[in-house]
Amino acid sequence: MNRSRAIAATAVRLAGALALALGIAMAAAVLPGGAAGAQDFKPYPATRITEAQWTSYFREVREKLGSSMQELTAERLIVFADRATQTSYAFTQPGHPAHPAWIARRVVEAKGGVGIRQIGYFAGDRGSFTDLYQTYEELNDRIGEFMRRDAATPGR
Asked: Which of 75, 43, 70 minimizes the C-alpha distance to 56?
């Protein structure tokens, strides 16, 4: 399977797991200002990090959000959801081309509606990380389009 097909296939498989985390927030239609003790969304100033920083952040998220952990074995990802801050975290695992890396996505108020803010960090291959990051951006776009169509549906 070539790289672009693999990325597309991963995006489709990720949609279900990520929809769970984001769907909860969107269904609530309430955007809290934050939660006490919430996980830091942007822990480092630059997207290039060390493996030690990846390991440290993964442990922090797992400690705080471990009950929400979902292992996506085929995608070599572990996903966490923080309902209080409406944030999802996807960490690559060994064998993933972008490992070690993670993508964090947060539901935010945007232009009178709802949007998705995304950030990512990597200690591995920049090109593979860029592919992963773009896959999530494409998923964000599809979710945004779905939300716009849903909002335009009469009776909503």
From this structure: 43
Task: Kindly state the greatest CA–CA separation across the chain.
Answer: 51
Provide the 3-class DSSP secondary structure of residue 40: coil
For 62, half-sphere exposure in the C-beta direction (CA atoms, 13 angstrom radius) is: 11
Helices (H), 36-123: 51-65
Q: In angstroms, rounded to a whole number, what is the distance separating the alpha carbons of residues 150 and 136?
A: 21
pLDDT at 143 over 80: yes
Segment 42-92, tens digit of pLDDT: 999 999 999 999 999 999 999 999 999 999 999 999 999 999 999 999 999
One-letter amino acid at 13 equals R
pLDDT at 5 over 80: no
Going from the C-alpha of 24 to that of each of 18, 44, 82, 98, 128, the distances in angstroms are 10, 27, 10, 28, 29
In this structure, the chain runs to a length of 156
Phi then psi for residue 5, to 5 deg, are -65, -40
Cα(53)–Cα(30) distance, integer angstroms: 32
Contact present, 57 and 119 (Cβ < 8 Å): no
Tokens of residue 24, six digits: 């909860």
